[in-house]
Write a structure and sequence with these properties.
Number of domains: 2
Strand content: under 5%
Shape: elongated
Number of helices: 10
Largest sheet: none
Order of helices and strands: HHHHHHHHHH
Amino acid sequence: MVSIYNQFDPVSIAIFAARVRRMDFMTEFGSLGRLDGVAVAVLVAVWLGLSWWIEHPTAKRPSVSVVMSEYRRQWMQVMISRDPRIFDAQVMASLRQGTSFFASTCLLATGGVLALIGNVDPLRGVAEDIAMTASPAVIWQIKLGLVLVLLSNAFLKFVWANRVFGYCSVMMAAVPNDPDDPMAQPMAAKAGELNVRAAMNFNRGLRSMYFALGAVAWLAGPVPLMAAVAVTAWVVWSREFWSVPRAIIMDEKPVQPDPKL
């Protein structure tokens, strides 16, 4: 009687059920093919590689982010002799509002993705019609998980950028308003570096959002994902290295006055 009772012990039943669920998960997870793994690896490699390229470009062709970093440092130096500094405060407030807006957007998008992960059935039918294949619910949850990771990273970058812009604001307020003050130049230089770091994190958050949008294509399959990664990479690269604003900043495209004005 004791041996029979032990066979139906609640702990043993729970362990057995957990093993069954684990086997089911591994079986369902195995339905992802090698091409899916390659596509995800390509996304991560392109995302990180492109970010490194933008932040460490060649001297012959700098990115917009690097060029603007020098203008940010110059801004802090010019601010020393500007009185009053109302314009500087307004620009900084605008930058912080931008980071707050994108952080709020990422938070809302993250909540939407979490809701879909909790109930993938509405999305499952549409995605299966597009991909022409049926997959277990856990597969769709994994694919949405990739989008969730990128959105979460973007949210953290925006929040940190907002905070560093706050540090920069305090440092700007501490810069003496006298160019002859020995502390003016060093304090302005510190404010400039904080401004650059905040902008760097803001740009990283934007790139993470771009690739999160591209990661949605994984719902249609690995090939659409790789195609979306290529398109996203082109959009990000062109805006940093081959855009009209960059040409204007670099004086490669002189601005002509409008004869109608």
